[in-house]
From TrEMBL, chains A, B:
GO terms for molecular function: DNA-binding transcription factor activity; transcription cis-regulatory region binding. It comes from Actinophytocola xinjiangensis. It holds the Pfam family Peripla_BP_3. It comes from the Bacteria. Residues 14-68 form the HTH lacI-type domain. The keyword Protein transport does not apply. The keyword Transferase does not apply. This is HTH lacI-type domain-containing protein. Keywords: DNA-binding, Repressor, Transcription, Transcription regulation.
Length: 348, 348
DNA sequence: GTGAAAGCGCTAACAT
DNA sequence: ATGTTAGCGCTTTCAC
């Protein structure tokens, strides 16, 4: 045995310490080389990098985080990741964040406002550097309180909250696309339009309702009905069934206020034995898989959800690099399709 | 000024240190109280908890992780989180893991095997305690190599790899549901069935192909065609278009081997001007939103993806608590529907 | 039952 | 340009 190196446990991963020993230099020199400090000689750089390669050294991200005071981790609080819209946003955000060296910690709150608040606390204790948040209730006191205690920057995703002036935000201009839809229906002759809406505790639902109400104010011969509820198929089904049971007073066009609501609306329409668009015109919000293969293909209020995630990530990265808070609005569109037609002649 | 407490910076969060000072006890006592050590007097417990409450102390999860050698974090490597199936699995897994105190670090590899490998490295450096993995290529050398170097337990989600004997795994029994579908088609009279398949580098695609081939071997008068490719709509469209252009030799039934492939298949069928099921029978794999509202409603090979995520989480938690590695197979079913009918009479 | 002290793996002064 | 030292905030021996 001619080795003079102290036999360190080979099953255990090497740390800067082992690298320094092997290279015959100080710990700090290893750290300097690895973090790209300018003042290092070529000789030093080589000695260290050789030792790093020989030992298969990898920095401990956890220790770095503790020491540097930055975890390079971002929390993403969502109501329901299994909603394809949420998932598309997550994809956009994760990709952009990872490019900047951040990782995404995902927490799901099943659209429970109290869980939102708990999760913000968790993410604070985990020392995430920032937050992306699509809370279930923009005015929930506990959520707002936790957010105020949260030390890092926060970006609201398709949400707004006046009580959080520190937060950045990105949201779709839900009014634009839906206005186009309502106008389209009105021009086709519809005089009673119903919106089977989601939960008005979040921006998208409130904006959609606002579009219908505002439009109706400007056009006296238009009647509008808004049925708020959960973003669920069950609500879509029940609300639509009730609307369609309205006899002569029933709407001639129905707008599904979200992809989760749509299946319920379709089920109710089918159960009522109505034909689209002959008996009833239909519009849905948010493009999801297969809508274009329904018969007839559904007219849709469209937007780019990957964008939403990417912009959210960009806004957070801005704040993390010290820049000011900002709010961004992204466009929505409307794709008319065969699910909209003039209303049936009403028997007089 | 009668206070004798040293005025600590109030903008800064309190640590165990501050709690100990305020309570007039040692650091270690604070730690003991907070971690529920048995040997603590009631007096001590109260003094500490009072100070904790007064200062609004919250433990630093990062520091705990470093010291304890466990980050209470699990990495989840997916090909595409925006795929609703993946997202449903993620929901099941996140929920189960969070219940056990773990958080989920999500990384998306855009189905790029090299990114899979890179991500495993990242998650190792971040000291995640374990891994959930749905890799893009089960045999990719870099992925396997990184996985072998990964120190914690790993659960393959709907994937298998003989070279990773240490890994737990959960996957659907893709054969069962698809066998039922093929049998159903055969009984209806179909003698040429095509599978527009996904990428055979992953288990689901291989199992689906195997079902068709095995069935054909047992039934000499059945012709089967398998068109492997990416799990994409583009592949679905192109492959289906090619199949349908086959003239007299074209299949009378087509199976879409995944939810991503389905829209392409539907587009090609529509483009070919064929009517389902009169001209062509159709089956798809994996229930997704709206399939039941297509006309006709699509026959579907079904499974519970939330389960897949939950079981994956459970298997990982088992390993994390020292128990042995395990493999679980979950059931699939088949829901026949109006998209399947006897094949059209062939002109002789 | 409680306190003192060591150290998880790393970085950033501060020296030289 | 390199080495020495003091922590980041916490847990955990080890003494008493």
């Amino acid at each position: 045995m001619t080795t003079d190196e102290p036999r360190t446990d080979p099953t255990r991963r090497a740390g800067v310490r082992q690298v320094a020993e092997r290279a015959g230099v100080a710990l700090s020199s290893v750290s300097r080389v690895l973090s790209g400090h300018p003042d290092v000689s070529e000789l030093m750089r080589h000695r260290v990098l050789d030792a790093v390669a020989a030992l298969g050294y990898e920095p401990d991200h956890l220790a770095q985080s503790l020491r540097r005071g930055a975890s390079m981790t971002v929390g993403y609080v969502v109501g329901d990741i299994s909603n394809p819209l949420t998932a598309q946003i997550a994809l956009g955000a994760e990709t952009a964040l990872r490019r900047a060296g951040y990782s995404l910690l995902l927490v799901n709150s099943t659209s429970d406002p109290d869980l939102d608040a708990q999760h913000i606390r968790l993410l604070r204790q985990r020392r995430t550097d920032g937050l992306l948040l699509a809370m279930a209730d923009e005015r929930h006191a506990a959520t707002i309180a936790e957010l105020e205690r949260y030390p890092g920057p926060c970006v609201l995703v398709d949400r707004v909250c006046a009580k959080l002036p520190r937060a950045s935000g990105v949201h779709s201009d839900h009014r634009a696309g839906l206005s186009a839809a309502v106008e389209h229906l009105y021009r086709l002759g519809h005089r009673h339009i119903a919106l089977v809406n989601g939960d008005p505790r979040v921006l998208p639902a409130r904006e959609r309702a606002a579009v219908l109400r505002r439009f109706a104010r400007g056009v006296p011969d238009l009647e509008v009905t808004v049925r708020p509820g959960g973003f669920t198929a069950a609500h879509g089904r029940d609300a639509t069934a009730a609307l369609l049971a309205g006899g002569a007073g029933r709407p001639t066009a129905v707008i599904a206020g979200g992809n989760q609501i749509l299946p319920g609306v379709l089920a109710a329409v089918r159960a009522a034995g109505l034909t689209v668009p002959t008996d009833l015109s239909l519009v849905t919000c948010d493009q999801v898989a297969l809508v274009e293969f329904l018969r007839p293909p559904l007219a849709t209020v469209t937007r780019d959800l990957g964008d939403l995630g990417e912009v959210a990530a960009a806004l957070l990265l801005e704040r993390l690099s010290g820049r000011a808070r900002r709010r961004v609005t992204l466009p929505t569109g409307f794709r008319a399709d065969h699910s909209c037609a003039p209303p049936p002649k009403r028997p007089t």
